[in-house]
Design brief:
41% helix; Helicase, Ruva Protein, domain 3; mainly alpha; elongated
Amino acid sequence: MSTPPTTPALTAQYTRIVEDLTYHYDGVFSRETVQLAVEKARDTLGPVAKFPSFLPILTQRFARDQLLAAAQAEGNIATTVPEILFVCVHNAGRSQMPRPWPSTCPPERSTSAPPAHSPTNRSAP
């Protein structure tokens, strides 16, 4: 299990992080789930922190990102970036052609990936 923060000030900071994230993810995650995410983030980052004074804010960001990813994976929160999927059965190059189109948008505005059902090793006409 996680080791508790060593000072009352740090304990208060981590309690505040849990409260803020619990409020932010109200109806998505329980307080206990948020608490575990914060403890896991702190335990992951603590041993490698070069500047321990930044550990609380980095812990908060890491836990927030992990909770957001979990909520999106479970379908509880919609992604903020549209996902574009170009599909070609043989991956004969046709699904590759439209891939640069979303790149005209800033990277934070869209993502794309060209999957293939039965990839081939050459392009088809």
